[in-house]
Amino acid sequence: MSSNYTYDGSWEGLLSAVFRAYREPDAAIHNPRDGVTMFAAVPVETSPEQAERLTRGMERLSPAMPMFVYRAFCAEYDGFETDLLESLRLGFRQNADPFWQRQLPYVRRVAEAETKTGREAHRFLGLVRFVNAGGNLYAGDIAPDCNILSLIGDHFYDRFNDQRIILRDTKRRTALISEPPNGWWITDLPDLPPLPENDAFTEMWKGYTVALANPERKNLKLQQNFVPLKHRKNMPEFRGP
Amino acid sequence: MDLSHKLEILGAAARYDVSCSSSGTERANAGGGLGSAVACGICHSWAADGRCISLLKVLMSNACVYDCAYCANRASLDKERATFTPRELADLTIDFYRRNYIEGLFLSSGVVKSPDYTSERMMQALEILRNEYKFGGYIHIKIIPGTDGRLVDKLSLLADRVSCNIELPSSGSLNRFAPQKLPEHIFAPMRHIKHGHQQFLEDGRKTRGAAGLTKIQAPPKFAPAGQTTQMIIGASPDTDMTILTLAKNLYKRFSLKRVYYSAYIPLGTHAELPPPETPVPLTREHRIYQADWLMRFYYFDPDELLDELNPSLQLDVDPKCDWALRHPEQFPIEVNTAPLERLLRIPGVGLISAKRIIEARRMGGLRLEDLRKLGVVMKRAQFFLTANGKFGGILEPGHEMLRGHLVDGTGMAQLSLFSQASALSGNAGALPPYPQESLPMSAAGGDGGALLALSGGAPALALAGR
Asked: Which chain A residues in 219-238 lie under 8 Å from chain B, judged by CB atoms?
């Protein structure tokens, strides 16, 4: 009889569920996002100790593997948990990093999710826009496809080491709070009051981005490849006059 | 003049400078300060021409005493001129940076009074940023040709990347269109920067060896992200051969990180420049960039791509494909055994897919259908590779129709429809049906198999395709 497991949605919870299901060939893991599944799923209790053991195991196959899998997890795609379970079984059986074997469909889905998150996290290091919200507090909104806040916290904390930051993920109602020198963390936001749209430099920036384009090389399609329309609402240079 | 108007003038004046990369240095925040640099570079926005905006790219001034024929800021043009004060520019950089608009500053300038006078003003802006604001972000500084070596040194110690633009790819063109600049005005700073940068790298190696050195004792960073240059494409009659050979020599002699190419936008009135309505040679620029990449990452030499008889890159097919079409004897390449540098010769296989092929084939032989999943562009690659001896292309590497197919694909699309139709009508005897399945190469090339039979009918089919 095959077992169905579910977990609390956290990274450690995921690893605990994988740990539990690993030796049951037909086991499946369901994401709590899916809500009620057709099958009764057994909730796996999150165990930091088991998560740690699995992390060490992955590191033995490749030192970069835990972060790789974490980024794939952040892509939040349906079926990820089961793909991961199969990929890890393959990896531990071969005693090698399984994620080079993209010719296998379940490996490819995990690897492509990792690429997607990695790309998006990198892209947003640039696309984030802050508005001065008084004093040295700077605020911004993003609505990324993947859950990237935890991946970009270090960057913004290190870079803006003399300003406070609130960066909100309006899709997931979470926020990255950076308060040097105390560190950065992620918090849930019950509601999202609108941010001020402009400050003293918004208009100057908009004018500059227009001036910099070569009219003789105009290529809006190319521009859209890099800045998809869905991300533009939070970027002042793409908001109307 | 208010600051935002100034910014628009000096931003518009800087749009002919191509480089906007913010890569090549890693710098942690000084602690409690502002700014860092990331080795891979970060793009922040994209302008309506599709080019990225990573740095605040502006001129210090668009006033210029030079009168270079091709330039949008030449002295004889009647246009609005503006100049930043060093303080204005430094403050603007900081305010944009805090809002995450930019990764840093790209500063160039027209020549105000003299190269040295201009460079000193630019240096003042950099000093305010680095010393007063402790700015740790990226700075790219242009060296004005003819600037004194000591100033070049000082600028290189403040900036991450330094560049001195060649603009015209031969001394003849330089003499004709920019008579106030001498080749030596450009190559002297390049040599200077190369030596300074090498010294910095060497000192770095030495100090890394010595234990217990603090950060303060580490050697000062001299252009840590190296130097680059830029050439204009299509203003002068110089060929692609001239341009790529010069690029190769620049990479070799001055250890440049990048050579940028800028398709000429007809702005000049000089009788020997292209007239104003000439289209901007964007495709040519693109092909030259592709060839540049082949030189830097794919072990290609310009001599392999071009020669005296064919001094221009093909516009309708990329340079790697073109090379492959001219060298059918090198193909097909077996993906399960070929070493990296051979894999990189296959059109449709890039650096990443080549690496993935090498990693994935350790765990067992790769099949043709696996390759697409590894990121190989089979549309092009199918004609140039085999997997476990299987060939999947509908034309062999040396086939006379292959070029036409790779250029637009229309010939073959029509063709395969046609052959399907003939197969359906049961008329396959009159026209050999196209082999749809993969053929082992020996059968194709050996005893007059399907592919050879096909080439007999090729001219008629090619006509049908057009």
From this structure: 219-223, 225-227, 235, 237
Residue B118 predicted with pLDDT over 90: yes
Q: How far is B16 from chain A (nearest CA, A)?
A: 8
Find out whether A2 and A23 touch, Cβ atoms under 8 Å: no
Partners of B37 in beta bridges = B27
For residue B457, which of B426, B425, B433, B421 has the smallest C-alpha distance?
B433
Q: Average of pLDDT values for A220-240? A: 92
Residue A217 near residue A208, CB atoms below 8 Å = no
Given a contact cutoff of 8 angstroms between Cβ atoms, the answer to whether B458 and B401 are in contact is yes
* CA triple B285-B290-B293, angle to 5 deg: 125
Query: Which residues from chain B sit within 8 angstroms of residue A226, using beta carbons?
Result: 43, 46, 50, 52
B7 vs B335: CA distance, rounded Å: 53
Which of A162, A211, A214 is opposite residue B33, by nearest beta carbon?
A162
Model confidence at A201, pLDDT cuts 50, 70, 90, reads very high
DSSP label at A97? -
Query: Whose CA is closest to B161, among B250, B30, B257?
Result: B257
**Residue in B14, B92, B363 closest to A94 by CB:** B363
Between CA B172 and CA B2 the distance in angstroms is: 42
Alpha-carbon distance of A53 to A59, in angstroms, equals 10
Sorted by where each begins, the domain ranges of chain A are 4-121, 131-238
In angstroms, how far is the first alpha carbon of chain B from the final one?
59
* Average pLDDT for A162-191: 95
ipTM at complex level: 0.93
Q: Give me the residue from B43, B98, B373 closest to A126, CB to CB.
A: B43
Contact A103 B282 (CB under 8 A): no
**Contacting residues of B for A216, CB less than 8 Å apart:** 265, 280
Dihedral class, residue B389 (left if φ above 0, else alpha if ψ from -120 to 50, else beta): left
Cβ separation A217–B42 shorter than 8 A: no
> pLDDT tier at B246 (50, 70, 90 boundaries)?
very high
Taking an 8 Å cut-off on Cβ atoms, the answer to whether A102 and B374 are in contact is yes
Q: Which helix (H) or strand (E) holds B46?
A: strand B45-46
Q: Residue B32 class from Cβ within 10 Å (0-12 exposed, 13-18 middle, 19+ buried)?
A: exposed
Please, are residues B70 and B264 in contact by the beta-carbon 8 Å criterion?
A: yes
Q: Is A40 on the interface with B (CB under 8 A)?
A: no
Helices (H), B13-77: none
Q: Do A102 and B3 count as a contact with CB atoms less than 8 A apart?
A: no
Cα B466 off chain centre by: 34
Contacts of A215 (CB under 8 A, 6+ apart): B49
Pick the closest to residue A172 from A140, A139, A138, A146 (CA basis): A146
Beta bridge partner(s), residue A168 = A141, A175
Contact A108 B53 (CB under 8 A): no
